Amino acid sequence: MELTRRQTLGLAAATVAGTTVAAGTSAEATPNRWVRETMRRMTLEQKVGQLFVCYAYGPTAGTSDARNTSLYGVATPAEVVAKFNLGGVIYFTWTDSTKDPQQIARLSNGLQEASLAGTGIPLQIGTDQEHGSVVRVGPPATQFPGGMALGATRSAAYARSAGAIAGRELKAIGITTDFAPDADVNVNPLNPVIGVRSVSSDPALVAQLVAAQVKGYQRDGRVVSTAKHFPGHGDTATDSHTGIPVIGHTREEWTRIDLPPFQAAIRAGIRSIMTAHIVVPALDPSGDPATLSRPILTGILREQLKFDGVVITDSLGMQGVRDKYGDAEIPLRAIEAGVDQLLMPVDPGLAYNSVLDAVRSGRISETRIDESVERILTLKHNTGLVDHPYVDLARVAKIVGTPANYAEAQRIADRSTTLLRDDAALLPLSPAPRTILVTGYSPTNLATALQSRGATAVVKDTGTTPTDAKIADAVATVADLTVVLTNKAWDTEVTDKQAKQQKLVNALLATGRPVIVVPVRDPYDVAYFDPAPTTLVTYGSTAPSMEALAKVLYGEIAPTGKLPVEIPAKADPTEIMHPFGHGLTFDAKQTRLTVASYNIHAGAGEDNVFDLDRTAQALKALDADVIGLQEVDVHWDVRSQWLDTLAELATKLGMHSAFAPIYDLDPPTAGQPRRQYGVGLLSRFPLIRTENHPITRLSTQDPNPVPAPAPGFLEAELEVRGRRLHVYCTHLDYRADPSVRQLQVADTLKILAQDRKKDLQVLVGDFNAEASAPELAGLWSRLTDSWSAAGSTTGGPYTYPAVAATKRIDFVTVGTNLNVLRAEVPAEVPVAEAASDHRPMIADLSFRP
């Protein structure tokens, strides 16, 4: 059961200057009355304490930690709160504050108890839960996409729902303030500290989505929202954690670019705004950072924008605010500038006593302190914290990380994924099982998502600074497809000083194998690699973002994200590589399927012999889901070898195999094995059924050849996304006369007619005739011919026969339920690498489920 403030005060007296705050002074009275009566009972020490928001080490309020003793002179978080009469605390992972929801809730209750026992005033408990790249409370709390991902959706509704759910979950574990959203407009691609934390480079879009987030956090989620970093941190190439950025915007540029999101947040009712440790000469020529600037905080924020909520500094431990003044002077200048709350001073005791001394000496009036305390207490009252300082532990699991919350996070992530390039027409992938190398930054979540779709994921985590050994290992890994993830690969000043992520991506692209490049943070990465034919951006690497990426890769959803920033070229920033709003898509209702025809024929390569490894390499390069094989087992010696050899080939490729023998190559000879000759099939999909149909053939090797039905028309039945797919593979007699061809076409049509009309049909094989031959008309009237779709091909020195351009050997034809997206004859390889003296055919197909 949740305790109210009045019940709490009945359990623990709140000593304030030797008196007790009356239990009857409830927040049910008007806020002004409660605030006035509380302030009247507060000592100066307690008032000054309300200005400070600090961290404390330990998972519980009573945990002793030597780090607390070193910093504060007391051991436990509860003692820290009591010693300095803190107005607020902030949680981080590194302070051991955010292990899991139950632990956080217990810590919150324990700290509230300590605060109420000391001052009678509940704590404001905050954290930086921006989502995306800045997260303090991890799973099972719902992990939403961050600011730029929201920008890619262009949806204010999603921005609000993310804020609402995040707010409710934080409130359930006792966190009353979220230092979010980021209201900066990221107009500088080289911004090292904001980047994807920002919604966009477009002020109007940032303003729209920031306002929606504020409404979600505050109106729906019932926590305090904090817009940051005023007056705007989006156009800096310096990280204010390590230096002091100078923003060169004119007053007009600031008004046009940086101001709109903060105006929108104020109109939406924002209760708190965080300052930036940045110098903006156009707003204050003194050279003071905004955190210490009265012209900016009082002149603009208070007087011009009429903001009367709580102004809190960014961390006072950041170098951007410490460069000019000492740690004792910084809090005084912040208060004089118009700040209400001082966040994380480097030396809390020094800062606290400095403020006390300034008031006692008359430098800062107590009236000025009262102005801030009144705002802080009003904030606590208006958010319900005064009447309900504790959270109900029994309700935490019912609110945090629910299936409905997870589903909403996934819906948002699904809408954010942005497809930048698909020059190789690689996407969407077919649903066929395949081996995928997932490498780069934090690949585990994506690997899990891919494995759930039947892929065999090979994980090579190289982080943000891959070693040469890890790069070599990734490049040497054999897979059907590679997905490489990057994180701030453009940043060679801090993140990746030796540009090793760029080296990794370029090395993978140089292999010539299919590679998908995905920046999982800043989209600007794509300008720093060699041209990658297939690139997407996710703006985050959490599980929902990686699940969304997997959905897009497999065509389960269409990519709908639009770039919320523009991506300039690395060499010339004035040249735009991808403009604002760019984003490709495809028809997610179409399922992709790649089918190839390949003639395994002897006499290939410089050694003029069949080579299994060379053939496997050639077949792998086709990257096809289904491969029909002709002239299988020619010159493979004894009969018993064909099945083992084909099975070995399938194993090398990670595919399933089938074979249909034809026994008419050699006349019977005493004491000699008759060479086997047949057709085969390799498939990434499991084979449900196979059958070797008889078809009219001309027994060309026997005496007195006559046309007669003989085996050699292979059927393999597969299932692809709920549809039955029949793949037929044949090697028709290239020496046959037109009358035999007519019989073969008639037999083919009879076999095809046995399938249901709704089933999918593919015929793969070779047929030494021109597509326009009259005897083939019946076949092409039933099937769409990718032979024709590919256009004419020119025979080369290793094409058999090296004759007329339209005289094809291999073909892929499809039934009416399949569409031919693309069909081509791949380029010939050097003779030393040739696995066959025929040219293959490959066709990209699609169908609707």
TrEMBL record:
- One GO BP annotation here? peptidoglycan turnover
Q: Which UniProt keywords apply?
A: Glycosidase, Hydrolase, Signal
Q: Please state the Enzyme Commission number of this protein.
A: 3.2.1.52
Domain Glycoside hydrolase family 3 C-terminal positions: 418-584
Q: Which Gene3D superfamilies match?
A: Endonuclease/exonuclease/phosphatase, Glycoside hydrolase family 3 C-terminal domain, Glycoside hydrolase, family 3, N-terminal domain
What Gene Ontology molecular-function terms does this entry list? beta-N-acetylhexosaminidase activity
Q: Which reaction does it catalyse?
A: Hydrolysis of terminal non-reducing N-acetyl-D-hexosamine residues in N-acetyl-beta-D-hexosaminides
Question: Which stretches make up the Glycoside hydrolase family 3 N-terminal domain?
Answer: 43-379
Signal peptide stretch? 1-22
- Superkingdom field: Bacteria
Q: List each copy of the Endonuclease/exonuclease/phosphatase domain by range.
A: 596-838
Family per similarity comment: Belongs to the glycosyl hydrolase 3 family.
Show the PANTHER family listed in the entry. BETA-HEXOSAMINIDASE (PTHR30480:SF13), BETA-HEXOSAMINIDASE-RELATED (PTHR30480)
Q: What is this protein called?
A: beta-N-acetylhexosaminidase
Record organism: Kribbella rubisoli
